[in-house]
Specification:
The structure is a homodimer of 136-residue chains. By secondary structure, chain A is mostly helical. Chain A contains 6 helices and no strands. In chain A, helix 4 crosses helix 5. Chain A is elongated and about 65 Å long. The structure holds a DNA duplex (30 and 30 nucleotides).
DNA sequence: CTTGACTCCGTACTTAAGTACGGAAGTAAG
DNA sequence: CTTACTTCCGTACTTAAGTACGGAGTCAAG
């Protein structure tokens, strides 16, 4: 007996997450996404949780986290030992703050460039490179 | 005749930029870094500009820009036509701002997680995933 | 109950960003 | 001048993150 909404297929999941079906399968192989049981010889069904997870992966990736790092982030969610989780989170937090600082200086540089570019004609010597000098 | 400081070798450049020598050569092949002339049958010499450029590339990469995107950013610096430059800069600026927004919500989520994790024992259900729901 | 679309699975291919390799040529110290 | 390290250059290998492919099984509409 089938409850009314017992999840969606991999194709629907992929489409909803704006991702290739193969990518979903790839994430499963990597252990980033749980592979739901398939009811005896049938097709796997996915739920909103899975969609959220895929979206999260893509979002974190856009921020420059690798899949390995994303998998660490996800372990936090999955309720690993609290101490480990905390350590991990603190490290990520530092990385995130460093990225934020870098991005802010790029933002400043870019908006200045845009402003100046509207004003001065030709010969743009933008402050972009200068804005990133002081990094490790 | 050699002036006292007429630049450094590729090895020194690479070391200063904390990068593999091969990476320098790779960037040259991709046109991200100019290849200085080699004085008749001798070795190429690099200057501070080149170092700055390599550092910039690495910084931008850490923020999630691809080498292709970095090369666009660098074209801005190189004084392309002002209008193009401005367009490019505006697009990048939007991308940068989107990244900033995402990063800020991750930062919030992570710091909340760290805080809670110190307080509650066990069973961490972190707000990380939730924090990234609202993205395209 | 057939037909067309979708799923499953393993394997193979692709792209981006390097890294490594090997031989010839340049260079710097003894 | 020899020896040991670099550079130079082309070509080949590696890793991460997918993408594509092909054959077999499943599902649902007509």
């Amino acid at each position: 007996m089938k409850t009314l909404s017992d999840g969606f297929s991999i194709g629907v999941l992929a489409e909803a997450a704006r991702v290739n079906v193969e990518t979903i399968r790839f994430y499963q192989r990597k252990g980033l996404l749980p592979e739901p049981e398939r009811p005896r010889g049938s097709i796997r069904r996915y739920a909103d949780d899975d969609l959220a997870r895929v979206c999260f992966i893509k979002s974190a990736q856009r921020l420059g986290f690798s899949l390995d790092e994303v998998s660490e982030l996800l372990k936090l969610e999955d309720g690993a030992h609290c101490d480990e989780a905390r350590d991990l989170a603190e490290h990520k937090l530092q990385a995130v703050r460093a990225k934020l600082a870098d991005l802010r200086s790029i933002e400043t540089a870019l908006s200045q460039l845009v402003a100046r570019c509207g004003a001065t004609r030709g010969a743009v010597t933008c402050p972009l490179i200068a804005s990133l000098q002081g990094n490790t």
